[in-house]
Design goal:
Helix content: 40-55%
Oligomer: single chain
Strand order of the largest sheet: 1-2-4-3
Order of helices and strands: HHHEHEHEEHHHHHEHEEH
Number of helices: 12
Number of strands: 7
Distance between the termini: 50 Å
Radius of gyration: 21 Å
């Protein structure tokens, strides 16, 4: 396989039952912002149901498209490769995999785990050649009438791209699905929901990331853990995540970039629910208010989980203590301790915090009597063991 300089390509797929169209999904827009600002707190659940929950038909189309792509990647894609390529599994991530997609907008990360990649460094050095092969095979497939595929490819000069990106439009819905196909090193093998990965895996990750200066670079290897963490949450927690994501998109339209990563807001929402409620049924306005309050306290945030990694292994423990002493905000990726998903963008956090402070006075946080909804009592930091 030849390696070429390639950036994420924009691909529109047409498959039987999913004929392509040039439908574009717009952002939330000023009308949706006005609606959310002005409704009383008691109607937030209805707002989510009416405006944010995905259409069931669209969900079925997304599932069909993902299955088609997964089958292609597992069974067909690498048959013509110059050297034997083995796909151990394809894992569906993104909002579709996690069960948190918004109405009219869905993203799916399809992580292709390849047995040919035998280390994190191998993934870093060789991912470009596998992305090139996937792109070439998709071009071959589009020539076959029974699997109609059309592409809009954008070329660029960034070397060794991390992913091949797709956009899928369903014809009768005017809604769009975004795909990212990412080659990855299968470091976890079989993933068990009930047990932690071997801590030696994290020790190896930390060693390679620090030596390569690529902290957070290999989070794709832990996609299954990230997906399972969110997918297993109660339905109402996912609805709260959708509401926070919608609010974030409104802020992004108004403020522009750079802002903190949306994933940081998703994990912050889970943290707020865990520490403030942790029950299946709760007051949505209280949860929403607490998330925004913590955004305004971003300089105090130090959040991490010990579901998949902890302080038992000496090397992992030493590294975690180093990570958690860094300048705040710190929100460690729940599955990858090398990734501080809060990032180092203090200006973005400052701007988002200013917007959150303004929103906290709006009617969506007031009861019908006019009084403000109470927030949950949630600490801004998780204690660190000595």
């Amino acid at each position: 396989m030849e390696t070429e300089n390639l950036v994420p390509s924009k691909v529109r797929l047409n498959t039987p039952g999913l004929a392509g169209c040039k439908c574009k999904s717009s952002g939330p827009g000023p009308i949706m912002e006005k609606e959310l600002k002005s409704i009383p707190a008691s109607e937030l659940d209805k707002f989510i149901e009416d405006h944010l929950l995905p259409d069931t038909t669209f969900g079925a189309d997304v599932k069909l498209a993902i299955n088609i792509l997964c089958d292609f990647l597992k069974e067909r894609c690498f048959q013509g490769a110059a050297h034997p390529v083995r796909v151990s599994k394809v894992v569906k991530g993104g909002s579709s995999g996690k069960g948190t997609m918004l109405k009219g907008k869905s993203d799916a990360d399809l992580v292709v785990f390849l047995n040919n990649l035998t280390s994190f460094e191998d993934q870093l050095n060789r991912r470009g050649e596998f992305i090139t092969e996937i792109k070439n095979q998709l071009y071959e497939v589009q020539r076959e009438r029974h699997f109609r595929v059309k592409f809009e490819v954008q070329s660029s000069f960034l070397p060794n791209a991390r992913s091949l990106s797709f956009k899928l439009s369903a014809p009768h819905l005017h809604q769009e699905v975004e795909f990212d196909v990412l080659p990855a090193f299968d470091v976890l093998g079989h993933v068990s929901i009930s047990s932690k990965p071997d801590p030696k895996i994290y020790a190896s990750l930390i060693s390679e990331c620090t030596s390569l200066r690529k902290e957070g670079e290999f989070s794709t290897c832990f996609t299954e853990l990230q997906r399972n963490f969110l997918k297993q949450r109660p339905t109402k927690v996912k609805s709260l995540i959708r509401l926070v994501k919608h609010w974030y998109q409104l802020c992004k339209e108004k403020l522009g970039n750079p802002l903190p990563p949306q994933y940081a807001l998703e994990l912050l929402t889970v943290y707020v629910w865990e520490r403030g409620s942790n029950v299946t049924e709760f007051n949505t306005a209280q949860g929403f208010r607490t998330v925004l309050e913590l955004v305004t306290k971003y300089t105090q945030l130090r959040i991490y989980w010990t579901k998949y990694y902890d302080f038992q292994h000496q090397d992992v423990s030493k590294y975690l203590h180093t990570q958690l002493r860094k300048a705040r905000p710190v929100i460690l990726d729940l599955a990858d301790p090398t990734g501080n998903i809060a990032g180092s963008n203090s200006e973005g956090w400052r701007r988002l915090a200013g917007e959150a402070a303004t929103w906290l006075q709006y009617p969506c946080f007031r009861n019908r009597s006019g009084s403000l909804v109470c927030s949950w009592v949630v600490p801004t930091e998780v204690p660190v063991p000595f």
